[in-house]
């Protein structure tokens, strides 16, 4: 009765307001949920990679700066990285959350039969976007979501990928010191509001280079590791000086570990198969073999069981858990040396005392992982994670919707100071494809349309009521259709 008495006099306007209020609030809520945090409030994240920093190096010599991050943050003891455990594939996995077969950077040296092109980290071929565009690195996603990114020499970060470079980046140049790279990173994070980066990546070539040359067991590596800890100390200090230390979430990790080699453990391919029958694309310890036309069977049969320290796989037989089959850039035959063994054509080739690339479940292949900052728990040790899980974790920290990936936030959310309140994707099931870069949504349009329809509907009903009141004869004609309303109306 109350509602209908409102309908009676001059209350239609009030009713209209009551009707529209939820719609207006709904629209406002919707807008609030989708709007980005203000520039100054946006979470900050810096991802640092010390190439070839094996997980156990931190225990080998005093590493007070790694320790301070662990005390104030988190340590993950066992990080299973991506196969093959090489630099380019793993750095791209860290920023895409994808295994190499999916992101397409399957090795440091590649051949793409469709493009008929070769990729080598020693040449400018790496600047061809086509190698990188099977995936989207996080800095591109950050920028498409309205954030800003800065990159200091991270592999691939000086390549235009899906039309974008990082907002700030350095052209790769190995002779630029770590300290200079840090200074650039600090400057980018400290820039005025609108220009400050939200996501930064920083790469340093050591201790990989020394690990290759000296071998990880060399006592000379102690000095190298202590030197890396000092470099980390420099970074922490610069963050403090710039007032960024408490604001920026810092993740320090690596692409892979390092195994000790021996000149006694060399497999010489020339002993088993003629060089004329194949091209070797990627090199030891995991070798991509491209047999010459019509020579597949001969090459495969010659190598199979040739040496007990070398596994030989047809592409389709590469073990499932490596996630290393489904890409045209993976060669038809893959040779994998046992840990500590080197595959060469003969002994005249370049021999190293340390190497990586082996099976990613080997402890020696695994990287360090420590992190601190407002998003992370304090003094927390986690047993294990996969390096592909880092991507959804970083997206969560940055409040960015992840693209489909092989990782899972569920696996690593215990590293966070507060648990995510949104539903977490089921492990190994990629989340749905995110909205287009513009963030355009149909919700407001549909909401507005429904609002208009409801208002019009109300007006039509109101007009009918008023008309019926004024013209009683109509009551009878439309009796059945309007019965409930009219019955009430008659009692007014
Ligand atoms: Zn290396």
UniProtKB/TrEMBL annotation:
The keyword GTP-binding does not apply. CDD domains: Enpp (cd16018). Gene3D superfamilies: 3.30.1360.180, Alkaline Phosphatase, subunit A. Keywords: Membrane, Signal, Transmembrane, Transmembrane helix. Pfam families: Phosphodiest. The keyword Ribosomal protein does not apply. SUPFAM superfamilies: Alkaline phosphatase-like (SSF53649). The chain crosses the membrane at residues 442-468. Residues 1-26 form the signal peptide. PANTHER family: ECTONUCLEOTIDE PYROPHOSPHATASE/PHOSPHODIESTERASE (PTHR10151), ECTONUCLEOTIDE PYROPHOSPHATASE_PHOSPHODIESTERASE FAMILY MEMBER 5 (PTHR10151:SF125). This is AP3A hydrolase. It comes from Amphiprion ocellaris. The lineage of its organism: Eukaryota, Metazoa, Chordata, Craniata, Vertebrata.
């Amino acid at each position: 009765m109350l509602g209908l008495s409102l309908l009676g006099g001059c209350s239609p306007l009030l009713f209209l307001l009551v009707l529209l209020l939820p719609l207006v609030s709904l629209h406002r809520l919707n807008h609030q949920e989708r709007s980005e945090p203000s520039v100054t409030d946006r979470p900050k994240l810096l991802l640092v990679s010390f190439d070839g920093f094996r997980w156990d190096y931190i225990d080998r010599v005093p590493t007070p700066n790694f320790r301070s991050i662990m005390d104030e943050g988190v340590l993950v003891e066992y990080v299973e990285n991506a196969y093959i455990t090489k630099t380019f594939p793993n750095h791209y996995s860290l920023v895409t959350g994808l295994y190499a077969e999916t992101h397409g950077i399957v090795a440091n040296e590649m051949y793409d039969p469709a493009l008929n092109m070769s990729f080598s980290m020693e040449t400018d071929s790496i600047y061809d976007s086509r190698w990188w565009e099977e995936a989207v690195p996080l800095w591109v996603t950050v920028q498409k979501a309205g954030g800003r990114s800065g990159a200091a020499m991270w592999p691939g970060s000086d390549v235009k990928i899906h039309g974008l470079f990082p907002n700030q980046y350095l052209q790769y140049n190995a002779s630029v010191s770590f300290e200079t790279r840090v200074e650039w990173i600090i400057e980018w994070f400290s820039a005025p509001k609108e220009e400050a980066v939200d996501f930064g990546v920083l790469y340093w070539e050591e201790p990989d280079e020394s690990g290759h040359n000296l071998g990880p067991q060399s006592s000379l590596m102690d000095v190298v590791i202590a030197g890396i800890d000092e470099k980390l100390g420099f970074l922490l200090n610069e963050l403090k000086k710039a007032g960024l230390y408490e604001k920026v979430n810092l993740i320090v990790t690596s692409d892979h570990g390092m195994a000790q080699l021996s000149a006694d453990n060399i497999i010489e391919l020339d002993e088993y198969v003629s060089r004329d029958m194949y091209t070797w694309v990627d090199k030891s310890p995991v070798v991509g073999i491209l047999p010459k036309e019509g020579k597949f069977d001969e090459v495969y049969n010659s190598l199979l069981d040739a040496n007990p320290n070398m596994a030989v796989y047809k592409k389709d037989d590469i073990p499932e858990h490596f996630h290393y089959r489904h890409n045209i850039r993976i060669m038809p035959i893959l040779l994998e040396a046992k840990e500590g063994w080197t595959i060469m054509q003969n002994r005249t080739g370049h021999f190293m005392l340390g190497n990586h690339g082996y099976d990613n479940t080997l402890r020696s292949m695994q990287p360090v992982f420590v992190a601190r900052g407002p998003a992370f728990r304090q003094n927390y040790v986690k047993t294990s994670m996969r390096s592909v899980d880092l991507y959804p974790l970083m997206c969560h920290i940055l409040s960015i919707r992840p693209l489909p990936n092989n990782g899972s936030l569920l696996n690593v959310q215990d590293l966070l100071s507060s648990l995510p309140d949104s539903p977490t994707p089921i492990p190994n099931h990629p989340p749905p494809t995110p909205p287009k870069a513009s963030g355009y949504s149909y919700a407001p349009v549909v909401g507005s349309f429904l609002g208009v329809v409801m208002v019009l509907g109300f007006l039509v009903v109101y007009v009918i009521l008023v008309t019926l009141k004024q013209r009683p004869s109509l009551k009878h004609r439309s009796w059945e259709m309007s019965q409930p309303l009219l019955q009430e109306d008659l009692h007014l």
